[in-house]
């Protein structure tokens, strides 16, 4: 039996690597799907113009002319996608060797010294919300009594906004302005609402929120082809009842791998008088967000695209620019010494 299983695995692996595709046909599928469903397509098309876009398409088709290898085709098609933006989109070969589950990225909490505590959050993924909430609840007495909080979110590529909601009270000093987003309603895009509603436990979502997603699904389907604001306002101002006396100073460590929801969190956090950002400029991947996926008809490729467009556009864009730190940390400071470096700065306040 073990021999049979091993043989089947080898045969499957060979079949995957020997796989060929009609690259031009796959590209035409990707192009049409992206044009019809991505929330940012029309914005970039309007900025760059039809002539420039048609040149891109001709150049891409010419580049694909002699290839049948899926991985090479994916690289060329990804270059086409990057015409629109550098993140919150993608195309990959849809086989078992492409996606590997990485190590768990659990939040951690520690005491640095008598004045400073450290909270590390490597991801805001929805499945980590319970862990993040739990670690904050467990250490609330320290969070409410120590003078300095270092919040290390380096390499946090995003996740879900609800994952950081319990952190905000410890940062809050004044009303917080948030720009909402518009959903681009298509039959394909709206399936994401059903996915979240039907599998809410998987995504760390409450049953109440799952019911709201079902309502959103019905609303969006009544306005196919339109950008729909599922909130009442394009801008909201959030106010909390209390300003906590501690921590007095919050240092958030950031780098070039922070994007998406991590940047949304930073836009919220940096409005606080307590907060300073330390490190490197962030990735700049936020204006078009809320991702969805679809497979090509052949099953060879998986396309990733965005469903929403932020009301920050066009006046306060983040894409391609990123968020600058208040205090840059130069390359002369090794990554493993950032915390020590920031502690010294906090001690001199």
TrEMBL record:
InterPro entries: ClpP/crotonase-like_dom_sf, Tail-specific_protease. It holds the Pfam family Peptidase_S41. SUPFAM superfamilies: ClpP/crotonase (SSF52096). GO terms for biological process: proteolysis. Keywords: Signal. The keyword Heme does not apply. Residues 1-18 form the signal peptide. Residues 118-328 form the Tail specific protease domain. GO terms for molecular function: serine-type peptidase activity. This is Tail specific protease domain-containing protein. It comes from Rhizosphaericola mali. The lineage of its organism: Bacteria, Pseudomonadati, Bacteroidota, Chitinophagia, Chitinophagales.
